[in-house]
Amino acid sequence: MILTREVxxxxxxxxxxVVILSVVGFIIYGFIRAPKVIHVNRQIEVTAYKVEDSxxxxxxxxxxxxxxxxxxxxxxxxxxxxxxxxxxxSLNPKVALMNCTEAEDEHPPRDLLGMVYASNDFKKWSxxxxxxxxxxxxxxxxxxxxxxxxxxxxxxxxxxxxxxRDSSLKVYDQLTK
Length: 177
Prior knowledge:
The chain has 177 residues and is of the alpha+beta class. The chain is built from 3 helices and 8 strands.
């Protein structure tokens, strides 16, 4: 009878240890699987260039306010370009899409505003904006803003880092291959 009490006590201790280790395992798993986000609140100055029109050069101020999700390698939040605000934005280099809604139009669907590319270490970025990216609208609002004062309608490229048109297009070419 003494032996069975000790066995029962050992069973209870073993069950308690299993329960405690299971709870600790679930907590650790939760921390590992939880989204890892970096809050972004940044303003960047870049120059926009056109692929075909070598005379086109336009300074652009980009403001980002949102989060970068390290698990999906994508940015979610608000983007302001030269004062024009776009909300509900998603920049995802894995699928090469930049989707946003204009600040005045908060309802889905989001408009495809451009193609976004990034290097694996995210030190190089490039955004291609084309006048034909739209979902039922007559024009791409971002393209209209960037193309002001120009009569040509070819792709507009914004790249980081880039000192001039040649380096901007070189970064774009490297990232799209």
